[in-house]
Amino acid sequence: MRTAVLPALALALAALPALAQAPPDVADILEEITSTESLQAAGKASQDVASAPADVTVLTARDLQALGYRTLRDALAGVQGFRANDDRAYQGLGMRGLYVLGDQNSRVLVLLDGHALNSPADVGASRLGEDFGLPLELVDHVEIIRGPASSLYGNNAFLALVNVVSQEAAGTGKGTLAAAVTAGSGGLGEAWAQARGTAGGFQASLTASGFRRSGTSILQPELQSGSVPAEADQEKAQSLNLGLRKGGFSLAGFLLDRTQSLALAPYLGRVGEAGNQYRNRRMGAEARFEAKQERAAWTFRLYGDRTEFRGDYLQDPARGGAGPAWDRDPDRSLGAEVQSRLFLADAFTLTLGTEWRNHRFEGISTSGGGVGTVGTRVAARIGNTYAEGEWRPAPAWTLVAGLQYATLTPTEVVNTVDAGASALPRDAVGRTTPRLAVIWKPGPRDTFKLLYGQGFRFPTFFERYYTDQESQAANPTLAPEVVTTVEGIWSRRWNARLRTQVSATRFAWDKLIYSGTVAGEGPMGGAVVYLNRGERIEGAAWEAEASLRLGSVELYGGLGAYRWTADGTSLGNVAERTAVLRGIHRSGSGSLALEGRYVGPRSLSGGASVPGNVQFRASYRLEWRRSWFQVTAEDLGDRPRRDLVGAEYAPVETTATDGRRLLATVGTRF
Amino acid sequence: MFRKLGVAALAAGLALPGSAAEVPPKLVAKLLKVIVTTAEGGNGAIECHDFEVKRELLALGVNVEDHGLVAWVTDPQSALKASVAHKLGVGSSLVLLDQGAALVIVNEGGRPTLYMSALLKDNAKVKPSDAVAKISKVMK
I want to staple A582 with a disulfide (CB 3.0 to 4.6 A). Which of A543, A595, B32, B133 is the partner? Predict the structure, then answer.
């Protein structure tokens, strides 16, 4: 017996190395490849996530749909490193724990199919909520870069870049006719319809959507009335998107019209007055041609945008206001980009590009007081020229080095008061931005990235030049703000089911632009003026993420710890801890998704603070061949969510954000 | 400068069309390697004239030859040519399924996805393996 066992044991031990080295099954290899996410945004060319010289997350259509996200802000707030901030004037997006109060999302570049939605004028828009303009159901995937990307994209790619790829651009999506209707609590209603077709080799699509929210009553004990009525919190939006594509040629256009009542009545408005409102009207079009030759790939873009922001305020004499006031801020631009990718050798690719954009912005306002009608007219040219090389000296190593030069050249800056006009200084601003990345893949499972990058943001026209001669002063010497980051990432694919990533990042942020006040007792004393912060802001972020698939259940978890200081003192409105956990169970035609997010407490140096809170989301979706039904419950935490509010936007320091909502959607496609 | 740009635009106009959201060449090459090495009746070689994909295939040790019975096709002309030659045409966009490609590799929801033509999959001398057929979505 003993003699038989020993040879069998020896044989089994001898076979172990062979078993361990057995080639993986073809099905496993295929599953691994087809579960690998890819993106265009990191290098302006298609790359898989592990090869991209950036810290990247891709939200797929399957996940977006299963979780029932209705707005881009909702979707991004579920990504580790982001957090939503709602001061009821702007739907802001904090990054790595920090949100600069009053930021109109000018530090995150938002692209729709590669077309920048941010504007250098940047007045009254976040592009993350109802002012995004495309239903998320029609999005193919969302590419997210955590960290600066100015070395390719220039202005605004400061803390993050978000590229939303529509089904139309990706050439995906099903059916020729699709439509959906959503009804929800808080008087929420949304409907969209899309028609797609092919004729003469052209693929065309037309999407129309409408949204309406009757508002929620907000408890604000600090205000005299104790609450803000629902009528003062209404919102409505309509949008139209058009796409046309043939081979490498595409044409896309959009129209958006959104009106939002201002519940907290900024600019001295009377609280609870439904007539206090913002209206954003945006239209844009882009023609793009992409072509490939033997050793080169080309992209040509020609685009134009027109945005019009309009604010109406019924000013409250009790707050120092003077009756009805308004502002109108039309902004239009025309731009072009040429980009080439040159495959110079088997292991070396060079990307070269240049983009030029001409802007005209006009800000006109009246306070209803003694100043009369005042205006600011700005014409400027923004240039962005970049070069980036990718070299693979060995199969396991990729080195990326890039350099970009950007300029902002004002050609006209004029302030007008009634009939009179005066020119302001037209100082041009230039900025050189580098990028370095080392990517090491010692084996099929592990990827190590060391990333060095910079982001910059030119002062917006509003921040640098706008003045109403009364409550806001211009600052023509305002300089761009710059952030420099160094990040180390280790990501590992343990097996076909488990993936993890840990990262550590350090930030150095110079010349942060913030809203201060004009010193002194002069005619503009106490008015808002945008300034550069003198001292450097330093930040650190530690993040960990894991995704696990257990049969039909997909789990994702993320944890983040953040620290932001200036001169050794913690910055305001920083959530030092954030976490997200979600699970999606799919079976047959149904899916059940649950998500919980934690955002740590935040405070301001003045003493205002909000507690940490947990936000929940649950969504159940049933999908049939030609239709789907979905019910979603949002934010069912038992503690009311609150966010901090910028002093220039409200008479309160903290406010309740939309807490609880139930949504039901019915959709069909043919 | 504008003259040079014009010449470049004209040259590009004569080139192959690109795609807005294509699958990265590295992932395409990995999928093509599986398709070529597991296909029934194949000769282990692939025809590929796309430089980016070709260099990734060569890095993976795949034999790239014009006589390969699997062909990577990126435009209607090469898709039709592969179909006429009874090669297994693998294309880079969905529209090529109607134009001669038996399989296409597209980016759907941020991930590579295979589609197979029910009409053309039996036209080629080589057949995709069961593993490839199993993960492919069939278009009728």
Answer: A595
Tell me how crowded residue B89 is: count the other CB atoms within 10 A of its CB. Answer: 30
CB contacts, 8 Å: B23 with chain A: 38, 46
Q: What is the mean pLDDT of residues A73-77?
A: 92
Q: What is the C-alpha to C-alpha distance for residues A384 and A352, in angstroms, rounded to an integer?
A: 11
What is the interface pTM, i.e. ipTM, of the complex?
0.84
The two tokens of residue B85 are 């030659």
| Alpha helices per DSSP H over A35-113 | 61-67, 72-77
Q: In this model, does residue A313 exceed pLDDT 70?
A: yes
The average pLDDT across B8-17 equals 40
Q: Which of residues 584-613 of A touch B (CB under 8 A)?
A: none
Mind telling me how many Å the CA of B14 is from chain A's nearest CA? Answer: 8
Q: Which long-range contacts (CB under 8 A, 24 or more apart) does B5-12 make?
A: B5/A338, B8/A298, B8/A338, B8/A340, B9/A289, B9/A300, B11/A293, B12/A289, B12/A291, B12/A293, B12/A298, B12/A300
Q: Is pLDDT of B10 > 50?
A: no
Tell me which of A106-120, A447-461, A466-480 is least confident.
Answer: A466-480
Residue A24 DSSP label: P
Question: What's residue A131's pLDDT?
Answer: 87
| Residues of B with Cβ-Cβ distance to A300 under 8 angstroms | 9, 12
* Interchain CB distance below 8 Å, B24 and A46: yes
Q: Which of A429-443, A609-623, A626-640 has the lowest mean pLDDT?
A: A626-640
Encoding tokens for residue A634? 């949002």
Residue A77 sits at φ, ψ, to 5 deg, of -65, -15
Whether the CB of A140 is below 8 Å from some CB of chain B: the reply is: yes
Touching check for A30 and chain B: CB below 8 Å?
Answer: yes
User: pTM of this prediction?
Assistant: 0.91
Distances (CA, A) of B114 to A203, B43, B128, B136: 21, 22, 12, 5
Predicted pLDDT at A1: 43
**Residues B93, B100: Cα–Cα separation, whole Å:** 12
Average pLDDT over residues A154-179: 89
Nearest alpha-carbon partner for A210 in A184, A186, A180: A180
